[in-house]
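Escalated from tier 1: zinc ion holo job.
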Amino acid sequence: MEAGLVDTHCHLHMDNYRKDRQAVIERARKEGVTLMITIGIDLGDSQAALALAQGEKDVLCTLGFHPHGAGRVTREDLSLLEEMARHEKVVALGEMGLDYYRDLSPRRVQQRVFADQLELAKALGKPVVIHCRDAYRDLIRIMREHQAYQVRGIIHCFSGDWNAALIFLDMGFFLSFAGNLTYPRAENLREIFKKTPGDRLLMETDAPFLTPQDRRGKRNEPAFIKYTYRLGAKLKGLELEDWINQVAINVRGAFPSLPNLHYIESLP
Ligand SMILES: [Zn+2]
Ligand SMILES: [Zn+2]
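Tier 2 regenerated the structure:
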């Protein structure tokens, strides 16, 4: 079977799609999206992510605590997450990480909640989806302290410099690029994308956020990932088909439990 488009990071279960979620999913399928991974950001939101994944055969999910809400995470939340994370449709933990750009939770607490989730991922044998803004130094330190190379995973919506990129690649991580790759002023990001080995890249929408340039101003949705794929192929000097195939291989590398879901026909 031909590989399809994979949106490795969207928030499809969120309220932004309350009124037309089914239509949004249908539009994605029509554009050739064969797999969508919907990403949890807190306990309640992660429950919603898992519920959606259980209801749609081409939707998988991750569960986690975003740094924005780290200040509200309790011990009990972490063990509830651990329970839920055993479900086979949960293909990674996250998003987790550090965000010093918005600084919505105290930095110390962000760091602790991130470290706790890295340990949890290690215990569960699941990869991690990492969110980082303006905090690469601390993020890398914590990843080293907690042997993140053992769990591996994805740096989602990569926004760091080439030095940070090299460190993540060294640790076995994948770099994922969102719709902001298409923005006129994202020249630095496109340079990093070009330099990153093609077998370590992923594509995402981060929908409903970061709508690609072609649709900028609208709510983002998984169907729009085609724009980011098109640019990705161009930057890599590949035919779109070949780029789609390469990313499908990368998706399997990034989410090692996918083969267990062989009953899903649309797996890359
Ligand atoms: Zn994020
Ligand atoms: Zn996100």
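The domain at 5-261 is CATH 3.20.20.140 (TIM Barrel).
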